[in-house]
Structure formats: structure tokens, C-alpha cells
Design goal:
The complex is a heterodimer of chains A (398) and B (603).
Chain A lengths: L5 E7 L6 E7 L2 E5 L1 E3 L12 H6 L4 E5 H16 L2 H5 L4 E5 L3 H5 L4 E3 L4 E4 L6 E4 L1 H11 L3 E3 L12 H20 L7 E6 L5 H14 L3 E4 L8 H14 L6 E3 L5 H9 L4 E3 L2 H6 L3 E4 L2 E4 L19 H5 L2 H7 L4 H27 L3 H13 L7 H8 L13
Helix pairs in contact in A: 2-5, 5-6, 6-7, 7-8, 8-15, 9-13, 9-14, 13-14
Chain B lengths: L4 E8 L11 E7 L16 E3 L1 E5 L10 H4 L6 E5 H4 L27 H4 L6 E5 L28 E6 L2 E6 H11 L3 E3 L13 H22 L6 H29 L4 H10 L23 E6 L5 H13 L5 E4 L9 H13 L7 E3 L5 H10 L3 E3 L1 H8 L2 E3 L20 E3 L28 H9 L4 H26 L3 H12 L11 H27 L6 E2 L12 H12 L1 E2 L10 H18 L5
Parallel strand pairs in B: 4-5, 4-13, 5-6, 6-9, 9-10, 10-11, 11-12
Antiparallel strand pairs in B: 1-2, 2-3, 7-8, 14-15, 16-17
Helix pairs in contact in B: 5-8, 6-7, 8-9, 9-10, 10-14, 11-13, 12-13, 15-16
Classes of the chains: A alpha/beta (398), B alpha/beta (603).
Amino acid sequence: MKSALKWDVIAKCGTTKARAAVLTLPHGPVNAPVFMPVGTQGTLKGITPEQIEGLGCQIMLNNTYHLGLRPGQELLDTCGGAHVFQGWNRNLLTDSGGFQMVSLLKLAEITEKGVQFESPHDGSLMLLTPEHSMSLQNSIGADIMMQLDDVVSSLTTGPRVEEAMWRSIRWLDRCIKAHKKPESQNLFAIIQGGLDPAMRKQCIEEMVKRDTPGYAIGGLSGGEEKDKFWRVVSQCTDLMPREKPIYCMGVGYAEDLVVCVALGVDMFDCVFPTRTARFGNALTATGTLSLRQAKYKDDFRPIEEGCDCIACKSYTRAYLYTIVTKETVGCHLISIHNTAYQLRLMRQVRESIIEDRFPQFIHKFFKDLFVEKSAYPEWAVNALKSVNVDLIQGEEQP
Amino acid sequence: MTSPLRFQIKQTSTKASGARESARCGTFTLSQSTTAGTDQQHVKRTIETPGCLMYSQKGAVPHLTPDNLRQQSFGGVNISLEQILQTDQPGSFSKWPETSPIPRFKGYKFTLSEYLRLQDLITFCDLRDYSYAAETFRHPTVPPAKKLASNTDYHAVLSTPKGIRQLTLDDYLKTVRHYRPDVVVALADTIAETTTPNEKRIRKSLERSLKWLDQILLERVGQDGTIADRRLEEEKKRRRERKEKKRNTVTAAKTAGEGQQDQEQDQGTEIPKEMDEEIYIEPIPTEPWTDVGLFAAVGGAHLEESRIWSAQETAKKEGVDGFVIDTLSLSALGKDARLKHVQTSLDHLPSDKPRLLYGLHAPEDVLEAVAMGIDLFDTSYPFQLTEDGKASLYYYGPRPAGQDKSNSKTLRSINLWDDEHGDKFVPILEGCGCYACKDNKHTRAYINHLLKTHEMLATVLLMGHNMYQYSQFFTLVRESIQDGTLQEKSTAFLATFGKEPVRTLEKHPNQIIVEAALQKRNQRLEGAEEGVVGAIDMGASTVNTPSLGAAVGVSAEDVEMEDANKSKKRHETEEAGEDGGAKDEVVEKKVKKTAAAESSSPL
């Protein structure tokens, strides 16, 4: 299949499966591993495009289903796509609307044809077929588009999972056929198969035959046990083509990012940092600060020492305590900080891979965040052990 | 005493024949651009007058982060004590650091400027949020201007986000000493009652305000301004003690069996000699704060004599750097009546000191006030427009080039909620240099979309635009004073744009629809919560379910993500961080309750 991207691996970790790369897309280069903030409705929560660029963000997400509702396909066609619409000149990635199948399950009816949604806003019906999803995504004009997949919750068991896996493959074929702009938009396939290794293997084999520009690991981050989650991720990265980017959808929390990079994942997205910001929660390398709490009333330190975002360069926790969740500015500041935090984390991860000291970075990261080894999440310890990093016995090398 | 403020009048406009024009252009600066107590200097902006201070809430200009804020060209910020003084302050000021904890400002004294990151802007600290002074304007989370508890001889009443606070002179002084704003307004008894005040009330307010002003002026130069108060307190205390003593003696006598007659006699004859003694109170030398500028409030409500008296008496006081002309007490009157009373005050104030006016801030009102000689305003007008989803299109003087297409109907503003903007891929105003309009970056269609999807970027863009347009307006007004075209352009402005429609608090129909849908979605979600959570039983994991709806910035998309999160669990909680996820949930639920409570009453 035609590809509108270039994937150049510039360094490989000598210990884990991690790699550092440059993903060149129509709207510019993206340093990988990369965390993509989520601007669902064509905006990143009160942050201007200039501010997002200023944070070093090279790619962000928009949501096809939501943009399809508002402003709608016609308007997007008129103005020339989502980049122009929101004044964002760097890269965009759109998911197909598939995830809404899980999140809006009560409102969705799934058949071989597609998914019928009842809009949560006005009850109107939208039939999302692979063809319609492609059409919408072509109108949105994102640099990376996701196939419409039949997503089931990772907690689902039984024949439904296999049904969804095969249907996703069939829908991938329909998507490829319906995709009108392969020269400027990259279609990614999404590997399904639930938590079943055999199914995952089968899905990968089939989808790889379709030779899309990149692949995503889908159907996870739905509340499944973390121990199962990492094993699926690791199996996938073993079997997926390594000369293409690998995207794990819906991940996530800081420790998830670090572990998945070690397992060989290149791209991530998650609403968590911007969403938790709006409730006054600031992410730092040593944990989350819930700035609404009265204990910050007299804490005159910046959110995080060494952070160069506008919040940390300007204000103390004490002042932020008075405005988070009360003034929109409070919201913006924490959103900016959390996005800065995630992007900085990935930058640091990438640098450490390039300098071949990623394992040391991992040790330090976990120590800063969890402090005591007894607090290290077991799944993370196991996952890292599988790629030769022993968090418990191994030592941080100087 | 030399003032830390410098106000230089560059030019007064030439009076057209018969016109009572005293408009003037000036510059308002700090005479020394230093932050108190250090050798380090911040270069402070100058405010060109007529000009504005930026309206703020809780110490921040609404919707503008520090970087976006500095794209505006206003030189100062108006901060109200009632918005920013915490319940445990001034007491808890002892917990403030001496110098800034922010690394790049190491060594700078940690005053209000540093705390709010306004070091390059003139910080003007007033008591109350006077956006009330405008007709129906108020911030949605602040209760309507109902009758507060009255000011008394001992304190002025503030309406804080946490409720009513009675601010004493003592607390006021401690706060000023600690905050060290560039300018502070003297504690005053500003009449905020909704009923028309009577003469007695007005006289009382002026007496109190002038007394406090005298005390503040003494304290400012390091003398003891509260000595008379303390003497009075001491007298009262002794009187109380004497009464107590007498009561005890009488009671003792009673129990000893003496008759009531004798008691009365005792009470009558025993006039203590101490009452005639002069009580000596040790004067307390105080720390001067001459580095802080002082403005005085000039009032008198609607009584001409009172207004004249207030202005004259206040004008006599040495050390006052400028005046705030009260209009809050005139809220019941129409604009023309209010302007008349403002004029009365101005007629009796020295012309070499700056005058600030709240509440008359629509462009045509500004023009009238400027013509009378007002120098400073605030930016509650652009904020007000932004909250309503409106964007300014008015211009002053000749129509700027390139704007014909944007504004062929010479509208003073457009409402971006209106459906007609939904497909207009043009900036709010062609040729406007604000960051929303510049290079046609953000379109009317996009802002309409942002409003409809309840996204916060809408107000960020609108605020940037409206503030920018307001500052452009003031720049052109200043130019017209200098070249003598103020009157003619003011007349033309009124003819072209008419008067600002009276602001109601009614929401735009589209806004009502969006918010109703959001509400319905919230309810639908909450109803389903038990069912969904019950279906997914994974033991000890925590579910991250932040509260919805009332928290700032929650959009429809957030609400939808809730469904996803119900099945999303974190088996590793945030235990390594400051909180467990469960605690988050509890706190977040509280946030929702608090936010809901805030909208109906003060916390």
C-alpha cells in the first residue's frame, strides 16, 4: 500500500526492545517515541496552537466521530480540513470513531455494515461504516488515519472477541479500498484479538499482508489487568513489522509509557494528562499533586522544579491552589504543565535510548515515582524483566 | 513626601467653543522601577492615559495565561482585595517566603507582584470588585450585589469567594505592608447598598472614609495612625472593667445582706475619679510604606453638596496620589445622572492628579468620561463581552482599511453564538492584529464551533480579541486628544454605533441548548453509573471517575470519556504520588458539590 511517511530508526536500545526514530509525515517530522496529546474536538483544552507548538508538540489527535458531528464534514470540506480549521500546522492523527463503540456502548448498534450511533447530544443517528469513516477522515485531512475496527472491551470474553477480530480485518480491506488520499494521509491498521495470544497472532499475520504504512495495537486500555496487557503488547511488538511505527492506543500513564517503550512501542495517546488537569491535578516526576487540597495553601514552590512550562515559570502551588477549578486560567496552566510533563518525559526517554542508557533511565524513573521498590507495580517489574531490565535486583548504573 | 507614582500630563485637549472639555493625555508610571526592598529591578510598564488597568479575578486576568496576557499592551492590573485575600490572612502572611521561590526570580522580594507574576505591570490594589458598578454585570460565581452587612466605624465589608469578610483598618494595613502593591486604594466606606442612601448615611460614609484616610496617611509615613482608636479602645476597656468591679462590689454587698436602697445610693455616689484621667497610650512606631502609591475614594452618592465636600476634603490631604470616583452608590441612577455626579466630583479635584472611574466603560461612555477629565478605567467591558460570546467590531475615527467586508453593517459587536457565523471562514475582524485574528488564524466558524462544543479556547480567543480592540480604541482616543479631534470623533462614534445595549444576564438560545444537552448527558451518565460499575467487578482496583459538569472547563467530550473510564481501571493506583486514586474521587465529588454551591451562594 502507498505510504506518505518515512520511518527512520536512528538508535536502538542495547538492552530492551526500545528504539528512537524520526517519523516524517506530511506536516513535518515527529521524534519517536512520541506521546500525542488529545484535542478531541479540534482544540486542546483552552491551549492555543502557539502554546502547543511552544511545548514541542509535533503531532496531536482529533476525534473523527466528534468532528463528524460538529462542525461536520461539509464545513471541514469547505475550509480545507481540520488543520486549517483549528489553525494547527503540524501533524494530526485521527482515530476512526471505533473507540466510541466501547465508550458509548449503550448508544451503539454494531453490524457487519458498520456501527450505528445515537448521538449523545441530540439523539440523531449516525451510521459509521468503514467507508464513511474513511470519507470523514479524508475530509478532516489528518496525516495519520486509523481504520475503523470492531472494538470490544478488553474485558469481554467468548466468541464476540473472535468475531470482532475477523470483522476488523474485513473492515480494514474496506477502509483501504475507500481511502481516497493515500498519497497524503497514512492509514494505520489496528491489531485486535483481545487478550488471546493466538488470535492476536492471527490478526497480525492477516493485517501485515495488507501492508499499511503503520500499525496500532488496539483493544487494550479498557480496564484489563495490567499483567495481561503488557504480555499482549510485547507479543505484538515481537510479531509486528519493525520497519514501521507501532502505536499503542490509549496509553497512558507515565509508567505505562516507559514500560511500553521498553517493549518496543513508538507512539502513544491518552486523554489523561489534559483531563486530570481540569480537576486540578498536576503530574510530576515524583507523583501527582492534587492542587485543590488545602495542604498546598502555603506551599510556595512551583509545581515541579526544573519544569520550564509557563505554570512552573510563573506561579507557586499556593497561588494555583486558589485558582484551579475556579478560574479558566488555572485550568489552562495545569493543562499546559501536564502536557509539558508528558512531552518532556518522552524526550528524556528518547535521549536516553539514543545515548544507550535507557535502562538506567528506567531505574531512575521508577525510583523517583514510586520511591520504595516494594511499591513498584508488579506488572511493570515483570514486563521490564522480560526485556532484560531487572528493577528489583538490578542496579542503576552511574 | 515624594510620591512613588508619577503622573505627567502631556496635553489637554483644546476646548471647542461652549464645550466643557477637560480631556487630557498623560503618562502614569512608577517613579522608580524597583521592586521594594531589593537592588533588583523590574522594568515596569507605563500606562498612557486615558488608559486602563486590566480587570482581574482572583489575581488573574480572566482566560489569559501569563504569556497571552503579555500580548496585550495595557500597563497595569486591577486586583481587588476581596477576590484575593485569603480567610487566614493577614495572619498567614508569616508563611510567605521572603524572596521568590521561582528559580529565575531568585532574590526578588516576594510581594504581591511576585506572587501573581505581575512584576512588569503596575499592580493597583482596590478593596472591592467594582464591576458591580456597571449595570447588570457580575461574574457568574459571585452572588448578586444584594445588601451585604453594612460597613461600620471599624471595618469595611468585602464579599469574598468564601463569604463576607469584615476588613478592619488593622488588617488592611498589615495586608498593604505585606503585599506592597504599586498602588493601593485607601480603606473607605463605599456605599454599596441597593437602596438609595439617605443624607445621614452619606455623611457617615464620608466621615469614616476621611478618618480612615487620615490614619492611613499617618501609617504610611511611619507614624502611629491608630493611636486614637487604641486610646478609645482602652477607655472603653477601663469603663467596662469599672462596671464589672462595681457589679461585683454590689453583688458582694447584696449577698452581705444590704438593702436595695443602699445599692442604688452606692451606684449614684460612686463616680470614679479615673474617668477624668488622661489615658496615656504609647505610640507605636510603624514601618513606613512610602513606596506604595495611594489613591483615595471620593464619594457623596447623589447629593451634590456631599460630593463637593468629599472631593474638597479629600483633595486637601497631602500624600494622596490619585482619586477613585465612586459610582457604586449611584447604581440606581441612569448613565447621564451618574456622569453628572462624576462631573461634580471632578470640578473639585486638583487636575494634576490622576482620576479613575469604574462602571462607565462602554466605548461611548468612556468618551464622555474622558471628555470630563477621567484618566483611568478598567477592562471589565471586554471581559463582559467575552462572557457573552461577543466580539468587538467597533472602531473609533475613520474605518480602518480592510474592515469593510468584516463590518459592512457597522455593528459594534457580533455574537459568535449566532448560527450565521457557523460557516464563516473569516477572522472576527479582518486586519485586526490580535492573536485570534492575525494572519486569519482563527475564524468565526471555528469560534462558533468552540462555543457550541463548550470548549475553553473560545473565551481565550474572544478575550484576546476584545482586550486588543479595547486597547486600540484607547490608543486612538489618546491620539484624538492630542490632535484636537476628540469631540468630532466622539460624535461620529455615537452616530455610527449608537449605545451599548443594556446587558441582561440571559444566555444566548444556543448556549441554553448546549448546556441543557450537557446536563442531560451528565444525568444519563450518573444514572448508569451503578449499573456499569456493578457489571465490572475487578476487586481492589480503583476507578478514576472525576466529577462532571460544574467543574470549570468540562466539555461534552469529557462527559463522554466518562463512559470509557468506568471500565478503565488503574491497578497501580497513584499511591506513589501524593494521593490514591480513591481519594481523588472523593475530592472530585466534593469539587462538584462545591462548584454547584458556588453558583447559588457564596461558599
